[in-house]
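Support request from a user on the community tier.

User writes: "When I paste my structure tokens into the form, the page sometimes reloads and wipes my input. The last time it worked, I copied everything first. Here is what I submitted, just in case something in the input itself triggers the reload:"
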């Protein structure tokens, strides 16, 4: 039985990756942080299900605390380590720049150093991000595209990316960066734009609120489904030699398109009126304002356009995404509608 350690196991990706590995008969260890209230909703089913609970173990630790990382590695001796933990919100990284650098940047270095000292044979996956491309110098973005991060989060992830490469080159560790483009799901955190929209659509349909306030409607992202992106992480660690891979769908859509489609899924056709901060999206049938623009959600520097070229992952890992944009939006809206008890 293989043993894996996942940091960030309570997050969106951590929960899907834990499911995947348990399904492959791994023993899975996850690092969780202490919090005053439990936040394990995404993994509770794995702790109660008879088929998985014996092979799924949680340990307290924090990427800010090197000793806790070393202790967990010494206790669990994993063969694969997936570093998914991060302060992962780009907008919030402008409010907490040095904390984000500490956790999302230096945290990866702390873990790499602990791996080097305690389990140097282990294979290491780093959750790198398309935010590295930032003010992208070419489109689509591929492994060779130069980086130009646009946020404290992107800068922190740049440090972690190069730390991962450096430990491969300096010490011969098996380390791989997955440069993942945006991936979403019904488990996506509620303050990322996709989930914020689908949750608002559901609450509006349930009569619990009137509208949703968004920032930049023109930003374009390459949005895929988290449930299938985690398989690419695992595939990277099964290779003979470690490499870094771009993972995305090869399609790009704007925040406006996402909102349009999400409301359509709940039977509301949006028409747009006005410009800039005065723009609104109205229900074409009733004239009710459903989307507003609020500059509070603008970022000091924006990533305007992300679009992946995932051909290397297709050719070398055999990984191709199956869930397309429309299916992703539908899946997320339906899940949020079900959560508020709305059946259309
Ligand atoms: P997420 O839902 O925000 O999950 C982040 C996880 O990190 C949570 O389990 C969180 O724990 C944990 N964490 C945060 N700070 C920590 C600390 N100091 N010590 C230990 N754990 C800590 O993020 P995600 O969407 O699953 O993304 C997973 C990883 O991929 C992240 O590194 C993210 O930056 C990266 N990434 C994500 C995407 C995407 O589109 N989703 C794309 C590219 C890269 P709590 O539950 O206690 O908060
Ligand atoms: O959903 P977002 O917050 O995701 P963002 O910034 O692209 O970051 C996500 O993807 C990265 C990979 O590219 C990950 F590394 C990172 O951890 C995270 O998972 O914002 C997407 C776009 C941005 O351009 C933002 O300005 O949507 C725009 N936006 C417009 N209104 C909004 C809003 N974003 C948020 N969060 N909230 C809004 O109201």
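"...and here is what came back when it finally went through:"
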């Amino acid at each position: 039985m293989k043993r894996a350690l996942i940091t960030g196991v309570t997050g969106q990706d951590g929960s899907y990756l834990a499911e995947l590995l348990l399904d492959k008969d791994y023993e899975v260890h996850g690092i969780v942080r202490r919090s005053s209230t439990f936040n394990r909703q995404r993994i509770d089913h794995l702790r109660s299900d008879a088929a998985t609970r014996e092979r799924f173990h949680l340990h307290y630790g924090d990427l800010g605390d090197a000793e806790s990382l070393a202790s967990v590695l010494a206790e669990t001796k994993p063969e694969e380590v997936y570093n998914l933990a991060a302060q992962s919100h780009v907008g919030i990284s402008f409010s907490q720049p040095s904390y984000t650098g500490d956790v999302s940047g230096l945290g990866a270095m702390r873990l790499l150093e602990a791996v080097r000292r305690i389990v140097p044979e282990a294979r290491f996956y780093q959750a790198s991000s398309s935010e590295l491309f930032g003010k992208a110098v070419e489109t689509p973005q591929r492994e060779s595209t130069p980086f130009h991060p646009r946020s404290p989060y992107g800068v922190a992830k740049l440090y972690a990316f190069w730390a991962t490469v450096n430990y491969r080159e300096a010490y011969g560790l098996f380390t791989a960066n997955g440069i993942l483009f945006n991936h979403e799901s019904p488990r996506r955190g509620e303050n990322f734009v996709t989930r914020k929209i689908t949750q608002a659509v559901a609450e509006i349909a349930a009569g619990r609120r009137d509208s949703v306030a968004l920032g930049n409607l023109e930003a374009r992202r390459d949005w895929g489904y988290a449930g299938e992106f985690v398989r690419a992480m695992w595939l990277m660690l099964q290779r003979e030699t470690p490499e870094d891979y771009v993972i995305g769908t090869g399609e790009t859509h704007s925040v406006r398109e996402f909102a349009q489609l999400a409301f359509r899924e709940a039977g509301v056709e949006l028409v747009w009126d006005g410009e800039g901060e005065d723009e609104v999206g109205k229900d074409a049938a009733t004239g009710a304002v459903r989307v507003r623009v609020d500059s509070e959600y603008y970022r000091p520097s924006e990533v305007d356009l992300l679009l992946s070229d995932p051909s290397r992952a297709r050719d070398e890992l055999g990984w191709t995404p199956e869930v397309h944009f429309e299916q992703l939006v539908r899946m997320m809206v339906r899940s949020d509608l079900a959560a508020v008890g709305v059946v259309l």
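Agent notes: The reload is a front-end session timeout and is unrelated to the input. Residues 97-118 form the longest helix (22 residues). The chain has a mean pLDDT of 98. Escalated to web team.
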